[in-house]
Write a structure and sequence with these properties.
21% of the residues are buried. The protein is built from 9 helices and 6 strands; from the N terminus they run ααβααββαααββαβα. It has 212 residues and is α+β, with helices and mostly antiparallel strands. The longest helix has 28 residues, at 164-191. The chain has a 3-stranded antiparallel sheet. A 3-stranded antiparallel sheet has the order 5-4-6, with helices on both faces.
Length: 212
């Protein structure tokens, strides 16, 4: 097996290309890092408890962030250390079984993106093809993960892979929720401050019309 070059990986992988362009001081959530590495939150938590990389920033008792600069350098080092022979690959498998493994980036990448941009994904992907998204609270609107890297994302928002079909369904449902809330707010504003006629008649009066 030929070692994977970090330079080549960062040129070929849209996710790695995206973090290559981010400021070193940019902070990522645990959910974003889990998607980048295709690992679980528990895996990162266990690494932190042992003082093992990837490097992180503790901002509070329950708030953890990963600075792009140190994370990027660690990723490049990890990719460059990929096993290069069958013996090393077997050792890698044994280490994984014992829980001493490096992230999945070492010696292999996670699922391959069907296209290099979100626009092409929407235009060209098959229904089952997947793309990474940030599912934004409170209504679950899916946002292109690559675009979301430049936004302020909180722990309330989940990062996940969605198929084109699932994305369309999730996006439609989120829009319905948003429209319903906008309609409710519009109704509240329309009838705000209106008076009701005396005698218990609950008919709503037009704006600014005095009670009967």
């Amino acid at each position: 097996m030929t070692p994977t070059s970090s330079a080549a990986a960062f040129l070929e992988d849209p996710l790695l290309m995206a973090i290559e362009t981010l400021p070193a001081s940019k902070l990522l959530t645990q959910a974003q890092v889990c998607l980048l590495l295709e690992c679980t939150p528990r895996w990162l938590e266990e690494r932190r408890s042992r003082g093992a990389p990837p490097p992180y920033v503790q901002l509070g008792d329950r708030m953890v962030r990963y600075a792009v600069g140190p994370l990027r350098e660690w990723l490049k080092h990890t990719i460059d250390q990929a096993p290069s022979s069958p013996t090393e690959q077997r050792k890698r498998v044994a280490e994984e079984a014992l829980g001493f493994d490096e992230p999945i980036l070492r010696g292999g990448r996670r699922k391959k993106l069907p296209t290099d941009t979100f626009g092409r994904f929407v235009a060209l992907a098959q229904a089952a093809d997947e793309w990474p998204f940030v599912v934004k609270a409170p209504y679950g609107r899916p946002i292109d993960f690559l675009s979301a890297l430049t936004l302020d994302v909180t722990d309330e928002n989940a990062s996940m892979w969605l198929s084109l079909e699932a994305f369309a369904d999730q996006f439609s449902r989120a829009l319905l929720h948003e429209k319903a809330e906008q309609s409710a707010e519009g109704i509240d504003q329309t009838f705000s401050g209106r008076a009701f006629p005396p005698g218990g008649d609950e008919r709503l009066l037009p704006p600014n019309q005095p009670p009967l």
